[in-house]
Design goal:
The complex is a heterodimer of chains A (267) and B (412). With 267 residues, chain A is mostly helical. Chain A is built from nine helices and no strands. The chains are: A mainly alpha (267), B alpha/beta (412).
Amino acid sequence: MNNILSGFGLFQVLGNRFLTVQKELGGLAIFFLHGLAGIFSFPFQLRKILQQTYFIGVKSLSIIVLVALFTGMVLGLQGYYTLVKFGSEGLLGAAVALSLIRELGPTLTAIMIIGRAGSSMAAEIGIMRISEQIDALDTMDINPMRYLISPKFAAALISFPLLTAIFDVVGIIGGYIAGVLLLGINSGIYFYRIESSVEMVDVSGGFYKSIVFAVLVVAICCYQGYFTHMRKEGFGAKGVSLATTSAVVFSCVAVLVADYVLTSFLL
Amino acid sequence: MTENPTSPPLIEFQGVTKRFDTRTILNRIDLTIYEGQITTIIGKSGVGKSVFLKHIIGLLEPDEGTILFKGRPVASMNKAARREMKQEFSYMFQHNALFDSLTVFENIALPLQEKTRMSREEIRERVDLRIGQLELSDVRDKFPTQISGGMQKRVALGRALITDPKIVLFDEPTTGLDPIRKNAVFSMIAHYQKEFEFSAVIVSHDIPDVFYISDRVAIIDDAVILFEGTPVELERATSPSITQFIDGLERLKDELTGLDTRQQFLRKLREQRHLMRQGGDPYCFFLATLVNLDSIRKSVGHIALQRILAGHAGMFQQIFGDAGNVARYDRNRLVGLAPCTDLEDAIRLHQKLLDEISERQSIKMGKCPGDSCLYLEVLSSVILGDSREGLDDLVTRAGQAEQHVASIKCVE
C-alpha cells in the first residue's frame, strides 16, 4: 500500500513539475507576443530602439570580434593538423567557413551577447521591478512591456544577425591568419574552397538561427527580470541576483537546444 | 462614523479583503473617499496602508469585496474604462520609484512625453516651471542617485503633479525627511490641492503634522478600519482603542516647531480645567494667528516658510513655555495656556509676551535690509478660560476677542 502511495507521490511531483514548466512556457510565449506587438504599436519608439541597438549591438562588437578572431584561429589550427593527416589541408577554408557560418557564428554570438547584454537586461529590469519603477510606469498608464521590453526585442532582432555576420567574417580571417600566414597554406586555395563550398542556404540558415536566438535570449532574460518579484527563493537584491543567474543559464541552454532542433530541420 | 454630504463619494471600498498566503492584510474593509478632499490613512508600519493604496489604482486586486470608482465597480470595467480611470490618477511611491537612468528633468517630463501630444518646447516650459516651484533648478540635469533624499521626494512629487491629475495617491510622502522638509511636503500637498483642486489620499503615520492638512482621517489597524471621520471627530473620539492608538503613534513634541503636540496640549488643558473645578486658579488662553503665511510662501517657497515657522514657534516656546504650554492648533494658528489669576493678569501676560517678541526680534535681526525684509503678521488675543470649555470653544471665543496685531521680521 505504501509503495502504491509513494508511486502516486512521485506522479504528483512530476505532474506539478510538468504543469509549472507548461505555465512558464505559456507565460514566456505571451510575454514575447506582448513585446513583439509593442514594436509595431504607434507611436514608434525609434529613439529607444536605436539606444538599445547601440547597447546590444555596438557595445558587444569588440568582444564579438575578439572571440571570433580566436575561434577562427583555433579552428584553423585544429583543422589544419586534422586535415594534414589525410593530405587534404587545402579544404581548411571550407572547414573553417562552414563551421562558422552554420554553427559557431550564430551560437557563439548568442552566448557572448547573453554574457554581455542578456545578464544586464535581466538585472536592469529586475532592479526596476523591485524598486517599483515598473509599477510607477503602470500608474502613469505607460505600458511597461511596450516602454521597456519592445525596444529590446527590436534591437536584438537587428543586432543578432549583424553581429553573427561580423563573427563569421572575422572568424574566417582568424582561420586565414592561422592557416595561411602561420602554417603556410596557399591563400588562393583557402578562399577558393570557401567560395566553392559555402552556399546561400548555409548563410541563410545561420541567419535564421540568429533571429531565433535573438527572440529566445531577449524573451528569457527580460522575463526573468520582469518577474523577479514572483520568485519564491529570494526577494530584493537576492531575487535580482537569482534572476540574472537564471537568465544566463536558461538562455544558454535554450540557445543550444534550439540550435540542435534548427540544425536538424535545416540540414 | 460620519459621512460628508458636501462631496460626492469618489472611491468606495465595500467589504474588501486581501490576503497574502495565509496572512490577512485587509479584512472586510468598508471605506469611502470623497471628491475634492484630502483623506489620510494612518496606521502602524506593516498594517497594509500601502496595500490599501495599491488597490485604489489597480496595482493589486482584492480577494473579496468590491471597489467602486465614482459608483462603478472597478472589477467590471472594460480595458478602455480602466485606462480612462487610470488617467485621472497619479501615484507618489513611498520610495519615490524614480528612474535612475533618467535625469531629474527627464523623470518629471516622462508622463508628458509618453502620454500627451505636447511639443518638446511646451514640455520643457512646463517641467522647468514645476522644477522652479519645487526648488530643484540646481539639480535639473542630475540623476536621482546624485541628489539628497529630500530632493528625490520633491522630484517624485513633481512627477506626480505634472499631469495635473484629478486624484493623487501619496504613499508615505515624508518618509526619511527632516521635520522642516516633512512639513514643507505637507504644505506643498495642501497648497497644490487647493490650487489644482485634486482629491488626495495620503498614507502616513506622521501624527499630528498630517492632521493639519487633512479633511478626513481613517485608521487601519489589525486589518480593519478602526476609525473614519474628520480630524476633529478623531480628537473627540473617546473609544479607548482609538485614543490608545493615537497616543502610541503621536510624539509629545511637534517635530517641526518643538512645541507641544495637540494631544499633549489637550491633556494640559484637561488638567487645568480639573484644577479649576477643584478650586484652583483660573487659566488664560492665547490664540495667535499667523495671517500672511501664503504670501510669505509665495515669496520664499515652501521649505523657507517651514524654516521661518520653526524659528518663530521656537521663540514662542522660549518666551511662553516658562509660564505654560504652546501648541499648533492648525496650519497657521498657535494656542497657548498659562495659569493666571484674572483677566487683567492675562492681559498683562499677553502684553509681556508681545513686548518680549518685539525685543527679541530687534536684537536678533538688527536693522532690516531695506525692502527685501518680510514681515510675519500675527493676530493675537487672550481670554480667561473656564472649567467646561473644550479647545475648539476656546479658539472660537478667543477669535472673537480683541485682537492685537504684531509684525515680526522673518528674514532667515
